[in-house]
Amino acid sequence: MKKLTDQKRYERLLAAVQSGDIDRRSLLRIIGVTAAAVGVTGGPLGLLRRQAFAEGVESIRFDGWGGIVSEAFHNNAFPQYTEKTGIKVVEGEFGDTDEFISLVKAAQPGEYNVFLVSGVYDYYRFVKMGLADFVNEKNIPNLEKLLPATLAAFRNESEGKLAAVPFDYGTTGIAYNRKYISDEEAQAGAKLLWDEKYKGKIGLYDGFQTRAWMSSLYTGQDPQGATDTAAMWDATRKQRDLVLKYWGSGQEFIDLMSKEEIILSDGWSGRVAYLQQNGHDIGFIDTAQAGFAWIEGLMVLKGSPMEAAEQLINFCIEPAVAIAIAEGQNYPPSLDPTKVELTEKVKKLPGFDPTGKFDNYIWEKAGYWFDNQDAYKKEWDRISKGA
């Protein structure tokens, strides 16, 4: 009898909504009281509740990396999405994933909605901590236009489901000013970052993962399987005396390189492309001896209005929108080039793979970084503070 009663309640409420007899705020209140009284979380009432929330959403929050990345989304996606749906996008920025995790954990569910997660390691962290929510893929039809390899990278870390939809990819490598460093010299890859003749003109990313990765390469170890971590961190400590600045954001990297305060650094392919496009003669090495590749995704956080979030994600990966953002932020989109015609500008971006197979790319191993994060963060924190 209970199922029949719930079904009747659902039908009556639906008819009232369609006829305009119940406004949206009253509908949410009635559904909440009714569902609590009968213990309903799914079924018809649960569906109606989700639909009501989705229909009643006035805004959704998106957090990105700031600088040219946030500008690309702001200029090419969010106003158009708002015009199409009436839902305003509240834009936020963060420069460090650990900082953002702290903000999300301290916030009320639903305060943060969609953000740009960088790499499968960070994706894995949010899933592991229960901070993410899984999307209904049927509500994101543009998924079929994405590269299978990027979808698999996320699915493999969350039992086949998706809490984030692949959006773009890039590489971390060695950036150098050609006025002072030749292409031939740069072939040394990561080892160039320990060259004493560039003391005081080197900048490095202030992140434990990149520091451990580059130091593993310098000491001849697998960057995702170092066996002599003491040697790895000793090399990091030795390198510290050569460094002018450990930078914390892509914009800071751009500023330091463009002003020639530093002439050598590890860096991100999209930020290097920005420098090149603005007249700076910056070379970039992102081969196996220099760096690694990563995927960024549009990730949904717990408590978010799911249908609005899925709608926003589907809008952002619509080829015309994704390509416009890619050209703005200088990272190739996760669109499958065998299904979607990409522009010449996208095809010329650093790190772009025309095959979409990523055969020569080294991806993060989420489990390795998750298992070692506490010890590696602690040691990098000590070194960065001079210990």
Sheet with the most strands?
Answer: 9 strands, mixed
- How many structural domains does the protein architecture include? 2
Instruction: From the 3D structure, determine the CATH topology of the largest domain.
Output: D-Maltodextrin-Binding Protein, domain 2
Q: Please identify the top-level CATH class of the largest domain.
A: Alpha Beta
Query: In the CATH hierarchy, what is the architecture of the largest domain at level 2?
Result: 3-Layer(aba) Sandwich
List descriptors.
alpha/beta; D-Maltodextrin-Binding Protein, domain 2; 2 domains; 17 helices; 387 residues; single chain
Structure explained in plain terms:
47% of the residues lie in helices and 15% in strands. The chain is globular. Mean pLDDT is 88; it is low at 22-54. It has 17 helices and nine strands. It starts with a helix and ends with a helix. Helix 10 crosses helix 11 (229-240). By secondary structure, it is of the alpha/beta class. The chain folds into two domains: 59-168 and 294-347, D-Maltodextrin-Binding Protein, domain 2, CATH 3.40.190.10; 170-292 and 379-384, Periplasmic binding protein-like II (D-Maltodextrin-Binding Protein, domain 2).
How is this fold's topology laid out?
Layout: H1 2-19, H2 24-38, H3 43-56, E1 59-64, H4 67-76, H5 78-85, E2 88-93, H6 97-106, E3 114-118, H7 119-128, H8 148-155, E4 164-177, H9 183-186, E5 202-205, H10 208-218, H11 229-240, E6 243-247, H12 250-258, E7 264-268, H13 269-277, E8 282-285, E9 292-300, H14 306-316, H15 319-329, H16 344-347, H17 366-384
Parallel strand pairs: 1-2, 1-3, 5-6, 5-7
Antiparallel strand pairs: 3-9, 4-7, 4-8, 4-9
